[in-house]
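Fold this complex.
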Amino acid sequence: MLDSLPPRVSIYEVSPRDGLQNEATPVDLASKKLLIESLIGAGLKRIEVSSFVSPRWVPQLADAESVLTDEIPPEGVRFSALCPNSKGLERAMSVGLKEIAIFLSSSETHNHKNLNRSTERSLDVYEELVALALEANIRVRAYVSTVWGCPYEGTVPVNRALSIAQRLLEFGCYEISLGDTIGVGTPRQTRDICQLFASEIGVDRLALHLHDTRGTALANALVGLECGFQTFDASVAGIGGCPYAPGAAGNLATEDLTYMLDGLGIETGIHLPALVEAGRVAARILHRPLPGKVHQAGLPRRRRPS
Amino acid sequence: MLDSLPPRVSIYEVSPRDGLQNEATPVDLASKKLLIESLIGAGLKRIEVSSFVSPRWVPQLADAESVLTDEIPPEGVRFSALCPNSKGLERAMSVGLKEIAIFLSSSETHNHKNLNRSTERSLDVYEELVALALEANIRVRAYVSTVWGCPYEGTVPVNRALSIAQRLLEFGCYEISLGDTIGVGTPRQTRDICQLFASEIGVDRLALHLHDTRGTALANALVGLECGFQTFDASVAGIGGCPYAPGAAGNLATEDLTYMLDGLGIETGIHLPALVEAGRVAARILHRPLPGKVHQAGLPRRRRPS
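Structure:
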């Protein structure tokens, strides 16, 4: 048990996009930049900074171009933005973005509610979109959501998520992020999902996107580590969730994940005290207590040497 | 991984004591009874209902006798109460209580702050107290706190906790609850602690008392299960913590633990929907949002059949 965990983990930070897209009151540009700069300062190397979804659907992120024009990623930091269609891709290209993220659901009902089209139709759209992106030298990451369960359909056959993931990789996506979108997962289910995907696809092209809706995200992340997963999505202070999933709340908090990884001696390249501070920046920007724990409790006075 | 977990787990519920003892505004007797009855209704069989610590120290639980006179545990349910000294034991005996809990810290500084005496002196007091209790046919459970770390001393040598636990068992305590009092534990540390105690003492006389201060309680519980632990302390809705530990907040929420156990197919005897309701009762009684997640999110519409 815990004897052969990966030596290092890559964290893909989603707070500026997945976190801020749900805010009732849109966050102003200066605050977004402050958050992104705090995250970069803490050592995060992959940050999803905004979304090129239509501003009619997500007005909170209508300033995507401004964010990406104002913020230049320093050497070694990669920005990405959500992108549902060719219009979004054009916007991404107009600001010189080198990576986008596409998204669909393994549940037909959830996909319809979220994207207003079938998963099959989504795949068709994305096949073309990924080709266009790759031609323009833009990397594409893909989210497959509701892998652990759907708010409308309950349990979704995991083979459905697997075949969707395989097609997205065939299109040319470099990484598939598997989502427990409504945070229903428990460890043995997580083990079964992770083992299946690891054996069929390989962990080097997979990520876990865990929600802490029912408190199990870190336990599931631990199981993912034991299955060899090395990439995890997280959101500082646990902000955000899925706006189309009733009852959903709380991405896994980056500082809680990093605290656990740090205690396990797993390298992340993140400076934990600065990340705690970034969580507090998020709380100040949003003017309310946020679910992440470590940014609230702070670090212990002295840690056991790792 | 996860292949040989215990088939059933016993949950020791601490919310009426460890939860309510920290409230700035003491909770009234009727609300305490409502909480205890909700817990019994959800199927909890072991409940620490109050404390016989001096009312000067913990005025919130000054009504311990009333709670224990008014509430009669139904067949199969065991009540307990915290008891620091012979005065407390007398009070427990006066209401016919059949089980008490004693507590001390593996950290000298924490023990002084919490009990105003050395651990050695605490052990002397408890040796006598346990003998008196056993004579009166009262079972004694013991908490050993700060096993994962102390807010004042940092890391505490785990052999200290082990020798304290061994002495308490020699006195006649039936179970030792090992506490991550300030919620600093991470999974590999937890594995090391659990494996040591399991091999030196045996899991049938041990419990884990995990705090979720830094979000790691369920991941640590999972590790405990893998080490064969079958008894876990928890507090519905995650209420309570340790009043003498700066920065400490949040017992592991009973509903979050039970949700995970349920998903793992581990029997608890608890009816999860009723437990979710008990968590909401706690939130109503305390008039504020509480940290437990499942009582907030609710159960998924349909669960994967276990």
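Chain B is about 40% helix and 15% strand.
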